[in-house]
Amino acid sequence: MARAATARARVRPVIGARALAQPLRARTGAWLLGLLVLSLGMAEAQAPAAQPSVLSLLVKWTPLLAKGFVFNLVISFCAMALGTLAGVLLGMARISLLPALRGTSWLVMQFFRNAPWLVLLFFVMFLLPFEIRVGDGTIPIPDWLKATFGLALPIMANVAEIVRGAVQSIPTAQWDAARSLAFSRRQTLWQIILPQCVRRMLPPWMNWYAILTMATTLASVVGVSEVMAITLRITNAEGRTELLIPIYSYVLLWFFAYCYPISLWTQRLEARYRER
Q: pLDDT for 256-268, tens place per residue?
């Protein structure tokens, strides 16, 4: 009975905080939608009568904006996959028994965790060649691939920290038990420790994916034709200042609609695993 009461006492604050956070996020979505509607109304009031309405322009350019938004998602998928793979390896190096490997991985992780993402993008853009010569031919390296690599670097560092923290959160008694059963350190890590870490790593990993998705708009600064770059081209092509706020509010609503379910799922997973 005492244990059950203690468990309920622990779960109640989590449920209460989650109940308070959900209306707040719902209001945020309503505010963004209201901002879009308000900006559309103000833009329509300012638009010349002889020109197409702002709403018709948004409908007209929606397919092109959707194409750019999908490109943002492709960059986020590729950068997250590459950053996760490299981050797991870097995280394994962080818990290595070799001091030199452990120290070097710490320096790499701290550097990329604390470096501005836009600076890393420019660094990768100028560091990597524009094309690779293979025999008599050349293979061009597209800008979006460079941007994907640049965005994967901070993800790598943060995933490495997630892996290190999850591994070190496992009780040391499990290492001792595995050693008593003649498991090697590698076997203990890959067969016993890491499978238990997946649940602990999943919520922060999903949170970093949402952050990465929103950060893909930085790729427009280095010339990648994603949704923000396309939005800028549309506003320049139309030449109508009253279109600026509605179209950017429109794109902002798209990102919110995509990242909001990820945030909900992340918090539910955190609450579920905390209850256990």
A: 889 888 888 887 8
Give the CATH number of the domain where residue 57 resides.
1.10.3720.10
Q: Can you give the pTM of this predicted structure? A: 0.80
pLDDT of residue 20: 42
Split into its structural domains, the chain has a count of 1
Q: How far apart are CA 226 and CA 243, in angstroms?
A: 19
140 versus 5: the higher-pLDDT residue is 140
Q: Which of 118, 129, 274 is nearest to 199 (CA)?
A: 274
Q: Are 72 and 226 in contact (CB under 8 A)?
A: yes
Contacts 24+ apart (CB under 8 A), 263-266: 263/25, 263/207, 263/210, 264/22, 264/25, 265/206, 266/203, 266/206, 266/207, 266/210
The secondary structure of 88-111 as a DSSP string is HHHHHHHT-S-HHHHHHHHHHHHH
* Domain with 152 in it: 21-275
Tokens of 72: 């943002």
**Closest by alpha carbon to 146, among 221, 232, 67, 38?**
221
12 in a structural domain: no
27 phi and psi angles, rounded to 5 deg: -65, -35
16-25, 127-136, 157-166, range with greatest mean pLDDT = 157-166
100 within some domain? yes
In this prediction, residue 39 carries a pLDDT of: 65
Using an 8 Å Cβ cutoff, are 118 and 221 in contact? yes
Q: Is residue 179 part of a domain?
A: yes
Q: Is residue 120 part of a domain?
A: yes
